[in-house]
Write a structure and sequence with these properties.
The termini are close together. The chain is built from twelve helices and 13 strands. Helices cover about 40% and strands about 25% of the residues. The strands form four sheets. A five-stranded mixed sheet has the order 1-7-6-4-5, sandwiched between helices. A four-stranded mixed sheet has the order 8-13-12-11, sandwiched between helices. Strands 2-3 form a two-stranded antiparallel sheet. The protein has two domains: about 190 residues, Peroxisomal Thiolase, Chain A, domain 1; about 140 residues, Thiolase/Chalcone synthase (Peroxisomal Thiolase, Chain A, domain 1, 3-Layer(aba) Sandwich). It comes from Azospirillum rugosum.
């Protein structure tokens, strides 16, 4: 019924971020200058963060990171949810179920529970918090919300996703992985309103699937360190996409009686420049929608699970129509797919 996004207040220019990373990591890394071009090669110009630049240059522990996550995530979710409900002509009390995906922080009670009184949702609202899906959470979370909407026909389901990737920035560990993470990741949130019997003629979720490749647990994820989450991502991700994603996509589409050439466009998670180049090769000759993924990457960076919803919002705003394949990859290592009729 609607899609909305939200960005935090602090806008980070990529050149300024490089300067800050050089000041923090450079004195302790002999090969920092060799890694520095990654800031330009990501394809990112600006990003947004829940905290100002100087906050990230100081050591932070779990209590500070968790407090920043809770405060920042709730503010962004309230903005995205409020906009999505307004666009659907609904109020918080009209929502029957909430699905909330996030993997970049912890909160108990969970984020959607904390939003109940804050936004005026009903006390009997059904809640499903999702943790651990990583970048795949935007697609898989939307799919779970669609499945709940189908099971609760006539009821309204609100899907929420928020990722505050910047809070995982750990200045105490001067490693290539941390440098790349500081060049790539950003913060953002999104919301969508779904109803199984909606007759407004909006986009429709037709099908979804996921595929987890054996022996790939170490490709992407978190390490739990004393001072926060330590990011894990392999340099082999683009290679895995190029070699293994195509057959998974073909099987999914074949199950829907479709081929790649039947797609009108793509809604891809913009994980990075190398990832998008790999996706271009996998989905060839389908290209519509990839420009939107590049645009989100350029202006917002990699917001993990939230990113794909930003791409979907751009496709809808541009008036795109027809069957679109949503895709993202996350820890597992897992491919998340959804077929959406725009």
């Amino acid at each position: 019924m609607s899609v909305a996004t939200a960005l935090p207040p602090h806008r980070l220019d990529q050149n300024d971020t490089l300067a800050a990373a050089r000041a923090v990591f450079g004195p302790r890394m002999r090969d920092f200058d060799r890694l520095a071009p990654v800031f330009a090669n990501t394809g990112i110009e600006t990003r947004h963060a829940v905290m100002p630049m100087e906050w990230y240059t100081q050591p932070r522990g779990w209590p500070e990171r968790t407090a920043a996550f809770r405060e920042g995530a709730l503010a962004l979710l309230e903005e995205a949810a409020g906009t999505a409900l307004n666009r659907a002509g609904l109020k918080p009390e009209d929502v029957d179920a909430i699905v909330c995906a996030s993997t970049t922080g912890i909160a108990t009670p969970s984020l959607e529970a904390l939003l109940l009184e804050r936004m005026g949702f009903r006390p009997d609202t059904v809640r499903l918090p999702l943790f651990g899906l990583g970048c795949a959470g935007g697609v898989l979370g939307l799919a779970r919300a669609g499945q709940i909407a189908q099971a609760m026909a006539g009821r309204t389901v609100l899907f929420l996703v928020v990722e505050l990737c910047t809070l995982a920035c750990r200045t105490g560990e001067a490693t290539p992985t941390n440098v790349v993470a500081s060049a790539l990741f950003a913060d953002g949130a999104a919301a969508a309103v779904l109803r199984a019997d909606d007759e407004t003629g909006g986009p429709r979720l037709r099908a979804s699937a996921e595929h987890t490749w054996p022996g790939t647990r170490d490709v992407m994820g978190w390490r739990v360190e004393d001072d926060g989450f330590g990011v894990i991502f392999s340099q082999d991700i683009p290679t895995v996409i190029s070699a293994r994603l195509g057959p998974v996509v073909e099987r999914f589409l074949d199950g829907q009686g479709m081929a790649r050439t039947d797609l009108a466009g793509l809604v891809c998670h913009p994980g990075g420049a190398k990832v998008l180049h790999a996706l271009e090769a996998v989905f060839d000759p389908v290209t519509d929608g990839l420009a939107d993924a590049w645009a989100v990457l350029r202006s917002c960076g990699n917001m993990s699970a939230a990113s794909v919803m930003f791409v979907l919002e751009r496709r809808l705003a541009a008036g795109a129509t027809g069957p679109h394949l949503m895709s993202a990859l996350g820890p597992g290592f897992t491919a998340a797919l959804a077929l959406v009729e725009l």
